[in-house]
Specification:
4 strands, 48% helix, alpha/beta, four-stranded parallel β-sheet, 7 helices
């Protein structure tokens, strides 16, 4: 399960209730120093075309520009795959990405969720409070999404110089 949330720690009882055996935490746009950061997934404002930035960040052109940024920037792609791989390889794992509440970070979060859904057929969730976690359901990768993730895993392994079976255990 992949969630994007401002919540730092989800109570253990809820994790156990949902069948979560492992939690992997990343920091996307918060300032928690003890979490690994996904700072390459937040492009500088200079890398987003001005006409898109001045428009509606929920517009499809923003999503296209941002998705293009991820797949043409190796470091951003690796950090994106750090979110996807644990959800793919371990269904009992919760990938928790902490986010902050500002317009640009919200646009990035929404766009990441759209990308995950469109590319892999996998539903990620925004969890604003602990009660929301109760309603989040585990998702599966779609059949076309499995084909795409196989291609993305090959690229990821080559970039990280990992053995072929590294993420299939």
């Amino acid at each position: 399960m992949i969630i994007f949330t401002p919540i730092r720690d989800i109570p253990v009882e809820l994790l156990e209730y949902k069948g979560v055996r492992q939690v992997i935490k990343y920091n996307l746009s918060h300032y928690y120093a003890e979490m690994p950061t996904l700072n390459m997934l937040i492009p500088s404002i200079q890398s987003i075309p001005e006409d898109i930035l001045n428009g509606d960040c929920s517009d499809a052109s923003f999503d296209q520009s941002y998705h293009n940024f991820i797949f043409t920037n190796d470091q951003a792609f690796i950090q994106f795959m750090n979110i996807i791989v644990p959800a793919f390889t371990n269904p009992d794992c919760l990938v928790q990405v902490t986010v902050t509440d500002n317009d640009y970070a919200n646009a990035i979060t929404e766009s990441l969720i759209k990308l995950i859904q469109q590319r892999y057929g996998y539903n990620a969730y925004i969890i604003n409070d602990v009660d929301d976690f109760m309603y989040a359901e585990e998702s599966d990768f779609s059949i076309p999404g499995l084909f795409v993730i196989d291609q993305d895993l090959m690229r990821f392994r080559m970039m990280c110089e990992l053995p072929e079976d590294e993420y299939y255990d």
